[in-house]
Amino acid sequence: DGGITQSPKYLFRKEGQNVTLSCEQNLNHDAMYWYRQDPGQGLRLIYYSQIVNDFQKGDIAEGYSVSREKKESFPLTVTSAQKNPTAFYLCASSRDSYEQYFGPGTRLTVT
Amino acid sequence: EDQVTQSPEALRLQEGESSSLNCSYTVSGLRGLFWYRQDPGKGPEFLFTLYSAGEEKEKERLKATLTKKESFLHITAPKPEDSATYLCAVQASGTASKLTFGTGTRLQVTL
What we know:
In chain A, 0% of the residues lie in helices and 50% in strands. By secondary structure, chain A is mostly beta strands.
């Protein structure tokens, strides 16, 4: 059963701690993306990767980091430098940079 | 800068009461326009891609249309299970990976 998995579904952290969100896909897609969703705002692109070992900053990359060591995996680290980390984080992938397919999301709460 | 505006913000329909959702966009050369459905607490589910003005696509009770300035998502005889937030996104030519999202229309269909 092909798809995108994100774990965990809910994540709680104390301010000042780094946290890594997992994203795995078995769709054999080359491109992967991280978005952030906040109430009343559209999805905003954090980072994207079109090929293994390469990634680009999106619109709101400050305070985040990523890696793409395997085609199937694109983890996102939310660092302590991110000023407003509490949000719903969505991972997506696409085969040919057209339609993107999304995972179930991770809701991160930082207190 | 690419922009997407969706209206209305919220829409309440009775079962069987057809209506349309609007997505107005400005983009420097449209590569594709995408419609997604999002249920509360879940990732967006891909519905349609439209590439050029005049194009139409249908799926069950949903029909998406595209002009040079806007797209409509027509919902015919909706059922309660159609209740969700519908998101519109555009991809500009020359930006192979970047989607710009609207803030969505929250649809509620009641019995």
